[in-house]
Every structure is written in C-alpha cells, then in structure tokens.
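Please, structure for the following, as tokens.
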Amino acid sequence: MRVPVTWLREYCDPDIDVAGIEERLTMTGTKVEAIHHQGVPSTENFVIGRVLSAEPHPDADRLKVCAVELGEDAPATIVCGAPNVAAGQTVAVARPGAVMPDGAKLKQAKLRGVVSEGMILAASELEIGAGNGGIMVLDDAMLDADRSTDRRSNEISDRPAGISDRLAPGTPLADVLPIATEVIELEVTPNRPDCLGVYGVARELHAATWAPLAPEPWREDPGSPGAVSDAQVSVECPDLCPRFTARVFENVTIAPSPPWLAARLSAAGQRPINNVVDITNYAMLLTGQPLHAFDLDRVAGARLTVRRAAEGEQVATLDGQTRTLDAQMVVIEDAEGPTSIAGLMGGARSEVQPETTRVLLEVANWHGPNIHRSSWALGLRSEASSRFEKGLAPEQCLWAQAIATRLMIECCGASVAPGTIDIGGEGSPPPAIGLREARVRAILGIDVSRERQAQILSALDFRTVEVDDGLQATPPPVRREDVTREIDLIEEVARIDGLERLPITLPARRGAAGRLTHAQRVRRAAEDALAGRGLHEIVGWSFAEPALLDRLLLEPGHPLRSVVKIENPLSEDQSIMRPTLLGSLLDVARHNVARNGPDLAIFESGAVYRAADEDSGGDRPADEHHALGALLVGELEPVSWRGGRPGEADFFAVKALLGSLLERFHVHWSVREAAHWPFLHPGRSAEVLARGPSGEPSRLGFLGELHPRVAENWDLGRTATFAIDLGILATVAPEVVSFTAFGPFPALRQDLAVTLPVEVSARELLHLVRKAGAETLETAEVFDVYTGAQVGEGKRSLALALSFRVLDRTLTDEDVAPVRERILAALAELGGELRG
C-alpha cells in the first residue's frame, strides 16, 4: 500500500517529519517498508505562467515561440513543441535551474536560433499523470479535491473564467499542485484491511501521534436512498455477496482527470486512465473499498444478476484475456451473459468507453475466502482481489459510493439519478467486548489507567462504556473480524500505549525460569563460533522446490527424499519444506559467485524437516530439528605478499572448521567414511560421529567436498561443506565442563613409526593406540605419512607422537616400556609392525 504523505496529511497532520511518521506507524504495528520520493527533487523554479501569445517558430514547423507572463516585469520567451499550446492559457512552467524528476537540471537553451527561457510542462514531465501529447492547461476547478475553496476572486474582471488568484502568474507551482511528495509504502497485514485506505492509515497515525483527525470524508453523500428506475440488480448468492450497491449517473463526460487527481493516483502507484476509472481508483485508495464502473448503455437489459458461475463458463476480462471459470466462482451477468468476474476484474463488453454518457457505478462486498480461492485458481491478482480477500466490511460500500458520487459530479459533470440500489445492507453490529483492568495489568505487566485505555480505543474508533471492572468496547465495523476477544483489545492498548514501554517479565506459571535452556545455549554458542571464525550468516527460506532433490543427486528411497509437502504452496518453487540446509547455502553461494564474489564462507542455522515414516501409520509426526550448516567456496584467505597462494576450500579446511566448533563444546568426535550422502564427493567426504556421556557414538552430520556434478548444478567450482544436527550436539555436549588439574611433572614423549596395510585408517590406528595406552598415554597424534619401496607395496608408514604423563611423578623410560609394549602388541591386531 503506497500512501502519498501530502494526501495523508490532509486527514492527519502531526508536527513531525516523514521519518517521524515512519517511526510512529512502525512502532504501533503498521509497518513502513520504504519511503519513496515522487515528482521533482525540489520545487524551486517551478511556477504558474500565463501564455500571452503563441507564434509559429520562424525555422521549425512544429515549434511555437510563446510569450509567457511569470509575474515579473517582462514576459519570458519559451519555445514549446506541444500541439495544444495557445494564447490565454494558464500553464505550469519550469524556469532555468529547475531540476526535473529524472535529475536533469534545466538550462536556458537556444532552439533553432530562438532563446528559450524555460519549459511549459506536461503532466507526465512532473510525474503527476499520464502523458497525452500536450501540456497541462490549468483552471481553478482542476487543482484540488477541496471543493469548499472560496471562489469569489473569480469576480475580478481581468481574470479569465475559472481562474482565481491562486493561479496568478509567478505563484509557486507547489502551492497548487502536488509536484513533489514523499510516499510511504506500508506492509499491511491480512487482518488489517482498514489500513488499505488512506483514511484508515490516517486514523492509525492519529492514534499513534494524537494529532487531530479530520472528519470522515464520506460524511456528506450527494446521493440519495430509494429505488433506481434505470437499472435493476438481483443477487442469487447472498452468502458470497453480502452487500451490493449501485448508482446511475447521467450526462457523463469522459475526459482526462484533473491534475490533482492524476497526481495522487500516480504517487499511489496507479496509472491514470480517464476521469471515471480514476475516480473509482481514487475512492478505493481513500476508503479501501474497490469499485467498478459499467457503461450502462452496454449493460444488456439494464439489469445485473450476481450468481455462481457454471462449470467451464468463460468471461473476456479487461486485460484482454478469456478466462474459464468453475462452479465455485461468482460472476455478474446482464441479459447477454457474464460481464464481470466478481471481486476480481470487470469484463471487456461493458467497460467505460470514450463515448460513454451513462455510468452504473457498482460497489459491492464479496466473501473474502471465495475471492482468495478464485484469484489463485485463475492466476489473476488485482487491486480489488487483494482487498476483498482480506475481508472488507459491508458498511464500506456506501462510504466509497459517497466519495465517488461527489467526484463524478465535480470531475465528470455528471448528474446522479435518484435512488441507490442496496441489496444486503450493513453487516450485523459488532458485539461489545469486556476489557478488565486487572487482566490488562496481568498481560502487559504494567498499569494502564482506565482513562488511558478508553482514550486509545476511542482514537481507533471503538465505542467504549465504563463498567465496574473496566470497559465495554465495541469495535468499528471495519474491525469486526479482527477484534473479537478481550486479548485483542489488550493488544490494541499495548501497541498504541507503546510496546517499547513494556517491562521484561517472566510468564506467570510455576517453574518459569529466566534463562536459556542448554540446547538454546549450544545453538547460540555454535552460531557465535562460526561468526567468530569469519563466516557470514545467511537466512534462507524454509520452503524449497521439489527439483532440489534431483539437483542434489538423491536417489529414490534416500531418507532426504522423505519430504513434507505443503498443501497450499505459494508457488511450485516453494511447495516442500526443506530437508537440508544445503539448498539455501548453495543458492546464496551461486548468487554471490555470479556477482564477482568467488571466495565465500557462509553458514546458516535453521530448521529442516523430514516426513513421518509411512510404516508408523501416521502415528509419528513429521520430524523437525534445528541444523547448522556451513559452506566454503574458493580461497580461504586473501592473497598476501608474505607467502604463496592460500589454500582452497577442501575436505581438510572444512574438517578443521568443524573441529574448532566441536572442541568448543568439549565433544569427543570422530569421522568415518560416508556412503549415503550422494551430493558429496565419494573420496573426499565423511560422516561425523560424536560420543556422549553414554559412550555410544551418535551420528552428528556430514562433512566433505561437494560432488562435482552437484557443484556444476549451482555453477560453482570446488566447494566444501558440513551440516550437523544441533539437537544431537546438545545431547552430547556436557552442560558442565569439569576441570582437570595440570600435573606438576613433565610429560615423556616418544615417537613410533608403524608400518600398516593401506586400508587401515589413521582413525582406527589412533583408537587402538589410545585404548592400549590407558591412563598413562596422555595424547597420540599422527605427524607423518610415508609410502614407498622401503615399506613395501600395499603398505604405508604412519609416524606417531606419543605423550605419557602421570600426576604423581616424573615418568622414566622404564615406566613407559610396558605401556609401549602393549601398544605394539595391539598394533599387530591391525597387521602393523614397528618400522626398522
């Protein structure tokens, strides 16, 4: 929702700047997504002018040399190419030095030998309307929406008809036209359709700032109730059309909209078309209620019927497409068949044409869920459908009728026929809801006085009555679906009184503790550890596309193919819940690498999902657990003059990264060859195991280099990754780390070179050595590997650094000899022997 600030300030004008408005709206729950600038960067050098003469250019057939009065001693000479420029016109002029919306600065120029001292402007050049091939010609009636302006200045004899002192030459153009305005873009939540209208936003701003709120703009309605003689309407599905109103307008003149109207629509993101269509859009933007205009002479039989569509029925819509409907959709038809898809889009057959003179203006209320369903089924989104699907109030119909009726009279020269078709009427009155002072205090943790509560709710258009224990509050019609319980009223009080004022309190329940759980502490510490190592955190979608499974080379039956499917996805690309973090990590990596970011280190902490086992008969719910994943691409460090090229992302780099993380939690971990991760390189990957208090190893996750085919699917080179289950990590990480004192006696180091078959891994060797060394062996590490003729074919030599230590004395070679012999005896079980 785009709200021009100048339009908003007509109804609520707090003494704060646009940034202040943004802050107050956002802090009270109406989130401001962005602030845009519409029109010229500066209003300086834009003025009103009057064309005194317009003579043909001596050297150009399509140009005219104009003498323009600008309120100075002598007229300015301006060369103009517009076909409609003529003497006597009041126009908008840009003087030299004016900055146009595209940033260009206007200068005095010579055009075919004639000096031009400015530019006579078209609406499109100011971004306040669509281009029509000509300049704007101004009169008093075109300038603003306030029809109460005093026009007595028209009695001055030297003023042209329809021109007041407001349009005197030299008057700043910004005084009469919104040539520059800030536009607030709002993110309106589905439960607040009242904020889809400018006046609804003004009411929120009034409550947030206590600036005065102007009266409702629809309070004066030029129309009248009663029967309408020139048109008839019948509604066959009142459950899907709670209210249908219509009015007839005669003597309509189709023309471009006045500049003030076109400017507001342009700033709000609407394209001006003609005065009738623009009026329907203007009334929608002001009230939040969509409207539709029919050419009454093109409505066959002058009768409309609202009914459910027939299966397979077709309608040609205003966008030039023919759409096929089903029996759950609603159409508006005349005597010749369907003419509109209710709540979505009008039909081409009855649209307003340049020759239209009679208009039937329809303002109806439609069942929100049905409009939402029809919109998705047809793939048709419109301004109307986005409002109706959120659930509008039937009362809004006549609000929009009142606004549109006034504008049809003023901007189209129309006369409104007596009567208003009104089928269904207003909705049922919202029930009063009790609001107890004690309950407000219990929920918010602070005292909000009864008077303050009533003040807040009244500002939001609630009717309040004081009762013994608090208030009775009746929501306005536009909030009847949103505010239905006492807790909803408490939320209204809290957000306007100031959520930032609420104290930090614990839930009022037994056993509430103000600290993180062990699992939460592990999660945060893991994230901090990776951030501390220089990795950048990303946040990916929890949704994924089914094609992700094929791109990761997951074969049928693989556990990661057991995905949770979304019943009503936003799109096919987001139709499953992600089974792994790898997809979003790879998407971010591809995005950065494609934009000249070849070296990357990122991580993500988030939930992954797995469907329930079919064998469980649905008794076990889908699995959701919190995972942590990291991805390395390219070089690990910048190139430095101090040495050669840094290492690339590979198995050992990601293993070291994971090791530094797990060692922070004092977890005993190991790796073993992995065979069930097809997206990893088969020779450069491993499964990660962690041993908890029970001593049994748990499968923690995986690490390794990405399979070349998978890397190619994301346009990446050599890539390394790991992913672990943070829930399992929390179970194996000790909550309390025990301190072991350092011994006062030095360690005894001995080195062993052991010859082993090549199929024996270093992990197996170290496990056996540590087991044989028992408590005397403090550490055992591999520091060298050798293969060659000296150790024989099919064998290799591993050099071990053994460190022995006890706490009560200094060890000697004689003390260590029995332990060393046990280690050598254990090596024989693996086919190993002491080398040379």
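The first strand starts at residue 2 and ends at 4. The CA atoms of residues 552 and 560 lie 10 Å apart.
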